[in-house]
Amino acid sequence: MIQSIDYVAIGAPLALALTAGLVLLLDAFLPRRTPGPLGLVTLAGVVVAGGFVAAQALGGGERRTFCTGGGGCSFVVDGFTLVLSGLVLGAGVVVVLLSMTELAERRIPPGEWYFLLLCALTGAVLLPAARDLATLVVALELVSLPVFALTALKRYDGRASEAALKLFLVSVISTAVMLFGVSLLYGLTGTLYLEPLSTALSGAPAPGAVSVAVVLVLAGFAFKVAAVPFHFWAGDVYQGAPVPVAALLSVVSKAAGFAGLILVLTVGLPGQAALWAPLIAVVAALTMTAGNVLALRQRAALRLLAWSSVAQSGYILAPLAVIAGSARDASVVYLVIYAAMNLGAFAVVMAVSRTAARGELDGYRGLAFRRPGAAVALAFFLLCLAGLPPGLAGLFAKVVVFRQIVEGGLGWLAVVMAVNTVIGLYYYIAWTARLFTPAPAGPGRVSAPVSAVLAVGIAVLVTLAFSVAPQLVLSVAG
Amino acid sequence: MSWLPIAMLAVPLVGAAVLLLPGFAGRTPRRYGLAVSGVTLALAVVLAATFDYGHAARMQFETDLSWIPGLALRFHLGVDGVSLPLVVLTALLTFLCFVHLAGRPSRRPRALVFTLLVLETGVIGTFLALDLLLFFVFFEVVLVPMYFVIAVWGGPGRRAAAVKFILYTLLGSAVMLLGLLVVWAQAGTLDMVALAQGHGIARSAQIVAFLAIGVGLAVKAPMWPLHTWLPDAHTEAPTVGSVLLAGVLLKMGTYGFARIAIPILPEGAAALAPWLGAFAVIGIVYGSLACLAQRDLKRMIAYSSVGHMGFVLLGFATLTPVGVNAALFGNVAHGLITGLLFFIAGAVKDRYGTADMARLGGGMLSRLPYIGSLLTFACVASLGLPGLAGFWGEMLALFGAFRPAAELSRPLFLVFMVIGGVGTVLTAAYFLRMLSRVTHGSPAVPEGPPVTSAEEVREVLGGEGPVEPVATGTVVAAVAAPGAPGFGGLGEPPERRDVTAYELAAWVPLVVLILIFGLWPKALLATTTPAVQAILRGVGA
C-alpha cells in the first residue's frame, strides 16, 4: 500500500531536516571551515520552516497525514501543533544567533554544531504534531540525542564533558523508563495511537498495570522537563554547556517535553485524570519550591537561570493538575511567554559573558554603567520572570495560571505558587539590583557581537509585544 | 471616554520614558521633574475642578476600553468621591517631592526623577482603576520603583530594608490576587462598578475572598501584625521615599478596602469586621507604645503611621457611613500630616546628620526656630488636636465604633472604642515627649555615646559654633553611607541653616491644607459622603 503524504503538513520538519543535510555537505565542501555562511544557511532553514508554520496558521484548518485505515493518524497539524512549532522555531532563530556568537571563537567545529542543532529543532517541531506513542518517543529522542553531543562539543572544557555525560545518563534512563511505560500501554490496549488509546482505556476499569504505565510515562517526561524529583541534572548541565545549548535546553527541549506530556495526558490518557492530576499537582508544587529554593543560594548566573527555569517548569505544570476546563491552554500560554523571557535572559548573559568574570553574579555589578542597553534588557527579562511590572508578560502569564488553578478549586496549590512567586522575586530582584549598583572598577565599555545584539533585540521586541498585548498569545493558544 | 484620567497616567509615564532618551545623559533634570509633576498636578486640579460634586457617588470621567479580552481585562478608569481626594493628594505630594528635590540635589538625579515618575503613574493608576486586574497591575507597578528608591538612595541599612519591603508587599499582593481571582471565578466579571451593584457570591466564598484580599491590603496599609516591613522601609528611605511611602503608598491598601473589599464583598466584610477592628485597635496601641520606645525620629514617625492607619482601619471595620467617612478623611489627613512630618524629619536629619533624638539634643526652637515650630505644628496636627486635620479622622472613627453597623456586636466595638481612646492619649504622650526632648530645653549637647568619628566631632562642634549659612547642599546619605561613591560634600561640615525657600515651598501647601481640612472638614466630607453611602449599600441589605 502506498501512503499518500501531505507534504505541506510536514513542510516545517522536512525543511529543517533537509537544511541539516545541506549544512553537513557544505561543511565538507566549503574551502575553509568558516562559521559565517553555515550559520546563515541554518538561519535560512529555520526561517523557511517558520514560513511553513505561518502559512499553515494562516490557511487554518487541521491537516492529518500518515494515517492508517481505522487506527488514527501519526501526524496532525492543529492549533496546538502550530503554537508549539512556532515557539520552537522562534526560539531556534535566537539560538542560532547566539550560536554565531559562540562559534565566532572558532574553537568549536561549526558544521557539526549546526547539523546537530537543526536535528534537535527538527525533533522539537515534529513532536507537537506526533499523535502516536512511537513517533512521540522518536521525536523526543531526536531532541535529546543531539543535545548531548552539542554539550560535549566544547571538548577543551572539562565541565562541558561532565555536563554531557550527566545529561546523557539522565536522558537515557528517562527514555528507558518512558519506553517501559509506553510498552505497557501498548500491551494493555494494542494500539499506539493516542486517540484510540484513550477510547480503549476508557471502557475497562483500570487495572493496576495502567497505573504503573501512567506513572512510568509521567516519570519519563518529568526527567525531560527537569521536574522534581528528577531535577538534579539541571544546575551542572546548564553551567557546563555552552550558553546557546543551555538556552536550547531551557526553552526548546523543555517545550518539547511539555508538548509530549500535554499530548499524552490530554489526548491519550484523559480517562486516567483522576490518577495523574493529583500526582501532577504534587510534582508541580515540589518543582516550583525546589527550583526557587535552590536558586536562592546560587552565585553563578547560569546556575541561577537553571534553577529558576526548574521553578518555572513548576508553574507550567500547575494548570495541568486541573482536570476540567482549558488547563492545557494555560500551560501553553505560560510556556510561550516563558520561552520569550527566558531566552532573552540567556541572550543577554551570552552577550555579556565575555566581560563578566566567569559568569558570576557579582560580575554583573554596575552593568548599567558599562552597558546600559544590556542591563536594561536583562532587568526587564528578570522582572518578567519574577512577574512584576514592567515585566507585564510574566505577570499576565502568572495570572492565567493562577486563574486556572483557582477556578479548578486547587486552593492549596495556588497558595504554594503565591509563596513561590515571592521566593522567586528575591533572587531576581537581587540580580536586578546588582545591575544598577555602582561597581568599584569594571572594564570599560565593550561592544557586543552583532548576532548577540540581534538575539537580545528579538527577545526584547517579542517580550514587549507580549507585555503590551498578551492577547497575541491568549488568542492563539485559546 | 474621557481624556483626563488617561492624561494623568500618560503625562508621568511619557515623562519618565523621555528621560531615557540619550539627550538627558549626564544632565540634572531637576526642572524637568518639576515640570512633569507640575503638569500632572495641574491635571489633577482640573479633574477636581470639573468633578460634578452633586453626583459624587457616580463614576465620572470614565474610560472603558478593551485591553486583553482573553483575561477579560478592560482598561476601565474613573473617578468618584472616594478616589478623587487621593488622586489629588498623590499628584500634590509627588509635586512637592520634586520641589524638595529641586532645593536638595541628590545623586543620580536622572534615575531618581525617572523612578519617582513611574511611581506616580502606578499610584494614580491604582486610584483610578475600575477593573480588578487593572487595579492589581497598577498596585504592582509601584513595587519595583519603590524598591529602587529605598535600595539606591536610602540610608545605611537600605539593602535589607528594600528587600524586606518588596518581599513583604509582594506576598501581600500575591495573596490579594488569589482573592481577586476567587471573586472573578464566582462572579464572572472583573468590573468593579458592576461587582459593587451586587452579584450573588455565596457567603462562604465572600469570606474566603475578603480574607485573601484583606490580608493583601492589610500588608500595604499596614495593619498590625503585618506592619514589620514599614519601620525599616520608612527609616531607611530617603526623604522623598518616606514622604511618598507614608503619604500615598499606604493609602493604596486602605483605598482597596473602600473600593473592593467592602462594596464587593459586603457579607465577607460583615463576618470579618470584628477581626479587622480588633487588629486595628491593637495596631493603635502597639504603634503608640512602640513610638514611646523609639530613639530615632524617622522611626518614631514610621511607627506613628501604624497607629494612625489603625484608626483608618477601625473606621472601615465599623461598616457605618460615619466610620468609613472617618477612614477616608483619616487617609487624606494622614497623607498630609505624615508627609509634612517626614519632610521635616528629613530636613532635621540633613542638618544634624542624625535623626537620633538623644543626639539631636534639645532647643531646636531656639536654634532653628522655623523648623522647630513647623515640627511642633506637624506633631500637634498628628496627635489630633481639634482644629487641625488629624482630629477628625480619629474622632469620627471612634464615633463610628460607638455605634457600629447593625449586624456587628456593639459591646465589642465599644471596647474597641475605649482602647482606641487610650491610643489617642498615648499618641499625644509620645509626640509631646518627643517635642519636649527635641524642640524645647537648652541647645547644649547632651551626654551621649562617645564621639568616635571625625564627622561626629564636626557635628558636635557645629552645634556650639555660630550657625553658618552654607549654600551648597550636602546629601545626608553621603555621611551615612561611607564608601558609596558618587557623593560630594563629605568634607564639608553639616549645615545648620534654618528653613530654605525650597523647603518652605514644599511644606507650606501641606500646612495650609492641614489647617483648611481641620477647620472646615466638610470640604472633604461632602465629597466622600455620597460615595460612602454607595459603598455601604450592600452591607446589611
Structure, explained:
- The complex is a heterodimer of chains A (478) and B (541).
- Chain A contains 19 helices and two strands.
- Chain A is an all-alpha fold and 478 residues long.
- Chain A has a two-stranded antiparallel ribbon.
- In chain A, β1 and β2 form a beta hairpin.
- In chain A, α3 runs antiparallel to α10 and α7 packs across α10.
- Chain B has 541 residues and is an all-alpha fold.
- Chain B has a two-stranded antiparallel sheet.
Strand order of the largest sheet of chain A: 1-2
Largest sheet of chain A: 2 strands, antiparallel
> What's the quaternary structure here?
heterodimer
**Helix/strand/pairing class of chain B, anyone?**
mainly alpha
Tell me the structural class of chain A.
Answer: mainly alpha
Overall pLDDT of chain A = 86
The neighbouring-strand order within the major sheet of chain B is 1-2
Total number of helices of chain A: 19
pLDDT < 50 stretches of chain B: 446-495
Task: Briefly characterize the structure.
The complex is a heterodimer of chains A (478) and B (541). Chain A is mainly α and 478 residues long.
Topology:
The complex is a heterodimer of chains A (478) and B (541).
Chain A: H1 11-29, H2 35-59, E1 63-67, E2 73-77, H3 79-103, H4 110-126, H5 133-152, H6 158-189, H7 194-203, H8 208-224, H9 233-240, H10 243-268, H11 273-296, H12 301-317, H13 327-352, H14 367-370, H15 372-386, H16 392-407, H17 411-436, H18 450-468, H19 471-477
Antiparallel strand pairs in A: 1-2
Helix pairs in contact in A: 1-2, 1-4, 2-3, 2-4, 3-4, 3-10, 3-13, 3-18, 4-5, 4-10, 5-6, 5-10, 6-8, 6-9, 7-10, 8-10, 9-12, 10-12, 10-13, 11-12, 11-17, 12-13, 12-17, 13-15, 13-16, 13-18, 15-16, 15-17, 16-18
Chain B: H1 3-19, H2 30-50, E1 60-68, E2 73-79, H3 83-103, H4 109-128, H5 132-141, H6 143-153, H7 158-187, H8 192-196, H9 203-220, H10 229-236, H11 239-264, H12 266-292, H13 297-318, H14 321-352, H15 357-360, H16 364-367, H17 369-382, H18 389-402, H19 410-438, H20 454-464, H21 476-480, H22 501-519, H23 522-535
Antiparallel strand pairs in B: 1-2
Helix pairs in contact in B: 1-2, 1-4, 2-3, 2-4, 3-4, 3-11, 3-14, 3-22, 4-5, 4-6, 5-7, 6-7, 7-9, 7-10, 9-11, 9-12, 10-11, 10-13, 11-12, 11-13, 11-14, 12-13, 12-19, 13-14, 13-18, 13-19, 14-17, 14-18, 14-22, 14-23, 17-19, 18-19, 18-22
